[in-house]
Amino acid sequence: MRWLSMLLLTLVGWLAAGAAAEPNLADFRTVETAITAQIVSGRSLSSIGRTAHLGVHVTPDKRGRLVIDEIAAGSAAEREGLQIGDTLNKIDGKPLRTVEDLRQAIQSRRAGDIVQLNITRGGKSQDIKVILGATSRPLRLGAQRAVLGVFIGEGDDNQGAPVQRVAPGSPAERAGLRPGDVLLKIDNAPVLNFAQLTDVLAEKQPGDRVKLLLRREGKEVELYAELSADPNDRPFGAEERTLWRKDVYRLAVICIEYPDVKHNPQIPLKEWEEMLFSQGTYKNKRNATGQEVYGSLNDYYLEQSCGAFRVEGKVFD
Predict the structure, then answer these.
(1) Chain Cα centroid distance, residue 2
(2) Residues forming a β-bridge with 68
């Protein structure tokens, strides 16, 4: 009973102290400022769980306005005509005052959602509707890749991608594409290189009918093609699976930056290598960003395997 009495006294003292001063909730969202979710019926299964992506990086100017300084190639922002130097003012009527406002507004939506952006360009305000893209395109179990059967080169000055070869019997050949054509768009999505072609086709399924806009002998031509399944592609989930039987796994790690999140300069390469590959030293201390650490990736697998398996590697800039 004595410990219970002490606990009650401590609790009463804490409540009394709290009553004297209102808690500072500046870093927390209250009921009034919480971000609400909206339940929408009829959303396609392909968009469920896919976080939306606009594809811009913004920097506040001297007046605090969000100015676009980078646009990701093939992104929703590029597709809908946003430009470097545009100022983002509102999204669906809500003011954008900070970078975090923009990030939360986009992350609260799904791929395929339509948002209305209010921007300032050349001193004039205008509204632009944008169909948001996806941060990733996960394959569905049993799905096969859709192919067009066209081989393209690199486009020049945003003028499309030249068709170099058309696979015999492919959807491209059946649609009438031929070497020398310049492929401009697929279903209104610009195509300037092989990476953009791959991204567009990743959203499609075998059997989908797509509209091709191309330039032939100086004139724009529209063709339609029905995509087919890649004959050399196994359905996702049907791959043969093998067990790793060696005592070491050698891993190369390449650091990358996202269009909207730059590299943290506090974390040097040696910190990554110690976190991943060190043995017995990554503990009883804090890492470069202040969190306490309890072992490396290599330590984890050594412990799980009773010392039979380790991870080695190198981190590249």
Answers:
(1) 56
(2) 58
Whether 161 and 141 have beta carbons less than 8 Å apart is answered as no
How far apart CA 134 and CA 269 sit, in angstroms, is: 30
DSSP string, the chain: -HHHHHHHHHHHHHHHHHHHS----TTS--TTTPPP----TT--GGGTT-BEE--EEEEE-TTS-EEEEEE-TTSHHHHTT--TT-EEEEETTEE--SHHHHHHHHHTSBTT-EEEEEEEETTEEEEEEEE-EES--PPPTT---EE--EEE---STTS-EEEEEE-TTSHHHHHT--TT-EEEEETTEE--SHHHHHHHHHT--TT-EEEEEEEETTEEEEEEEE-EE-TTPPPTT--------SSEEEEEEE---BTTB---TTS-HHHHHHHHH-SS-SEEEE-TTS-EEE--HHHHHHHHTTTS-EEEEEEE-
Q: In tens digits, what is the pLDDT along the chain, a chain of 317 residues?
A: 455 455 555 544 555 554 556 667 676 777 777 777 666 554 444 444 467 889 889 889 888 899 998 888 768 888 888 999 999 999 999 999 998 899 889 988 887 788 999 999 999 999 999 888 877 666 555 567 888 988 888 766 667 889 989 989 999 999 999 999 999 888 888 888 877 788 888 878 888 888 999 999 989 999 999 998 877 666 555 556 677 889 999 999 999 888 888 888 889 999 999 999 999 999 999 998 889 999 999 999 999 999 999 999 999 98
pTM of the model: 0.39
Look at residues 80, 242, 266, 233 and name the one whose alpha carbon lies nearest to residue 142.
Answer: 233
Is the Cβ–Cβ distance between 10 and 79 less than 8 Å?
Answer: no
Tokens 């529209």 identify what position?
Answer: 222
